[in-house]
Design brief:
Elements (H helix, E strand, L loop, with lengths): L2 H24 L3 H22 L23 H21 L14 H25 L2
Length: about 140
């Protein structure tokens, strides 16, 4: 499998993660919303790394995007990297919370989750644009 095909697969996984994020929110599963959002960020990060021939299955994949920053020539690419890294920094601590400990705590409110999904949709749109421009 070549770099482009692998990146495309990771973008497909990201799209599925985004769909699962929306479903989790619709079902009132806020922990699932966070977990699926984090998976989305990881898959978009893996897609971008794949385009440049870097393959990893570690956690905190978005932090490894620093490896390809010097190869990027477009502001759009750099913007995508920064958005992914910031989103990962926001979401990762929330994934560490045990759901059973949430009896009296809310890790994210519905309106925040809806705003999060909007941000993820914008990231996916930007990622698709970067992917398309990479191939032109």
């Amino acid at each position: 499998m070549n770099n482009s095909a692998l990146a495309s697969e990771f973008l497909s996984k990201a799209f599925r993660s985004l769909s699962q994020t929306k479903t989790s929110l619709d079902e009132g599963d806020l922990v699932g919303t966070i977990d699926n959002s984090y998976n989305f960020i990881e898959n978009v990060s893996k897609a971008l790394l794949s385009l440049y021939g870097i393959y990893t299955y570690d956690v905190h994949v978005s932090q490894k995007l620093n490896l390809i920053l010097t190869k990027m020539t477009e502001e759009k690419e750099v913007s995508l990297v920064r958005k992914l890294q910031l989103m990962e920094q926001r979401l990762y601590p929330l994934t560490l919370i045990d759901e059973s400990s949430l009896k009296d705590t809310v890790i994210i409110r519905n309106f925040e989750a809806k705003a999060l999904i909007k941000e993820l949709e914008n990231i996916l749109e930007l990622a698709n644009s970067v992917f398309d421009e990479f191939h032109s």
